[in-house]
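Notebook entry, cofactor series.
This is the third protein in the set we're modelling with a bound small molecule. For this one the ligand is adenosine-5'-triphosphate. I'm keeping the input format identical across the series so the outputs can be compared line by line later. Sequence and SMILES below, as received.
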Amino acid sequence: MEQSGVHAAEAPIDHSRATPMLDVVGLSLGYKTPAGMSVAVRDVSFSVRRGETAILLGPSGCGKSTILKSVAGFIKPLQGAVTVANRKVDKPGPDRAVVFQEFDQLFPWRTVLDNVAYPLRATGKATRAEAQDRANLWLGVMRLEAAAHKFPHQLSGGMKQRVAIARALALEPAVLLMDEPFGALDPQTRLRLQLEVIEVVKRTAATVLFVTHSIAEAALVGHDIIILDGSPSSVASIVDARSVCDPASQEALEVGRQVAQSMGQEASHVIGD
Ligand SMILES: Nc1ncnc2c1ncn2[C@@H]1O[C@H](COP(=O)(O)OP(=O)(O)OP(=O)(O)O)[C@@H](O)[C@H]1O
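Returned structure with ligand:
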């Protein structure tokens, strides 16, 4: 999103000219275990263009979160590299912000406003007054003005996730990383938040890497759907979902079918996932 803020990219993005913001090249990742190195991901390559959302999709345990953590800088590659805006990632940094699935990722002792403002001050991105202004702005974007002075325990799960998203976006990261952010929500709230995130991503030209194991969510939220398979996993295929605007549309069904086929699943699974 780079210094754009909310005002930035209200103009539509010309995707044909969009350049990669995130590049993952030949990435292999693993975990040290008592029995030796356990390789989780092998030779994964993909890129995410500026202002677009890429989905990591695949069965449980295929390495989606592992890749996301590596992009965040928490896990070092065994091989290959991650670059964000042409800078190699070797540790966590302010150019990447992460939203997790868990509702308890907020500071319980801080108000909603302060949850969003505090990281801006702590990272030196803003003075106290600027941080408050920016936090108020982003609470507005996520329709949370009325909750500004509440504490996390007074919020619903969906509201907590919206605060976590506002907090991440307020940092104006080059890449926003989302690890199943709506996985613990009821279907109705989940759909509402999916549509809100799509709208905010469009307005702010955020570049997003989004983990899910829902085909329907992938088809709705993503521009590209990166399908992982195998053990250790690698990229099985990448499906273009740019045609999908409505979860109930023919286009959504068609993309869902393509994805299901790549994952070796029955197309009927798509509708109910
Ligand atoms: N800390 C760890 N130590 C050892 N192995 C791990 C660790 N974390 C994950 N793994 C293993 O790495 C592989 C990939 O896990 P990961 O959590 O990235 O998968 P995932 O696709 O995100 O799964 P899910 O959809 O269930 O969240 C799995 O085999 C998992 O058991």
